[in-house]
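Supplementary Methods S3. Complex input for the adenosine-5'-diphosphate-bound model.
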Amino acid sequence: MRTYLISIATMILIIIDRVLLILGDVPRIVRAFSIIVIGAVLIATLFIITGKSVSFLLRLPYILEVSGGFAQIVLYLLLSLGATLLLSGIVSILISIVGIPAMESMIYQKSALSMIGAAPQTEYVIEVEDVYKDYYVGKIVVHALRGLSIRVRRGEFVAIMGPSGSGKSTLLNLIGALDRPTRGKIYIDGVDISKLDDNALAELRNRKIGFVFQSYNLINRTSVTRNVELPSIILGLSRRKRRERVRELLRIMGLDDDVLKRRPIQLSGGQQQRVAIARALMNNPSIILADEPTGNLDSKTGEEVMKYLRLLNKKFGTTVVVVTHDRSVAEMADRILYIRDGKIIGEEVIRGGSKD
Ligand code: ADP
Ligand code: MG
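Predicted complex, serialized as structure tokens:
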């Protein structure tokens, strides 16, 4: 008689569980807990009602074989049910705590990687939304960016001007996925890069972004050819293809084949910066980020380097963002953004786009 009562009680509990499921909004974790409680209550009830010890229950299969009584079969089934509920509840909690977030992140990284590889769909190639960046220097916090937002269209040529320490390099490093914002979102070709893990970020940098720095950052121990082809080695391009592309890019940058075997240090500043631009172009990026690329050059050479940036912007439709102190350099862009104290304080559209 008692075992029948237990079966009815169990059915009621299972129905409650189903109702929780149908209600739908009940979080996975609550359901898992309810299953555990149901399982535990069921097992405990069995112990109490039968008044048996653990050793008796463990010996049940043996007893069943001997007696085979109907009540005992029901008892045994109920016990297995209780144990199953208990275990499945625990497993489901483990999955929700560890498994699901890990799986979701894995799925996001995978889809982001395929988006990084795919042809871009968005109108804006760069979207920076209310971004903050704090640096911690000992106990002091430096608020380098304070709620900065910008959007750059595909194929646009944008200059960023602002006083020293206003956050220009910080902004460029965040857009280039070299660093992560403290708060806010950054989309590159529609991919939210704040959610990417380090591997996916490296992949994005390698495929989508070319950097040009004030100090060229070329490796002087090796040849110009090696310097330019370096980013493409990771992508697994064949040596012949790489060399062809190096030559083509250097020609576009107005450099003859006789620089190929030279070391960067043997070239003029303007030539070195053009080699650096060729290197930035090697993987056919959608964005070139240049941090004061003319800062080490005299104004005439600086203007020439800008002309080459402008040229590749026109030729390949590469989006270019240039940070500069120099107003005449900035005026070669389509648009100038003014930054101060980590925020955009103004914008100027240059009529006609370029001077050339
Ligand atoms: P800009 O390029 O416009 O001169 P930065 O982006 O380099 O400005 O710097 C913005 C602010 O953040 C400055 O006050 C600078 O001192 C600080 N800053 C930049 N990088 C770091 C860092 N790695 N650690 C600490 N403070 C930094
Ligand atoms: Mg700077």
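The mean pLDDT is 85. The two ends are 97 Å apart (CA to CA).
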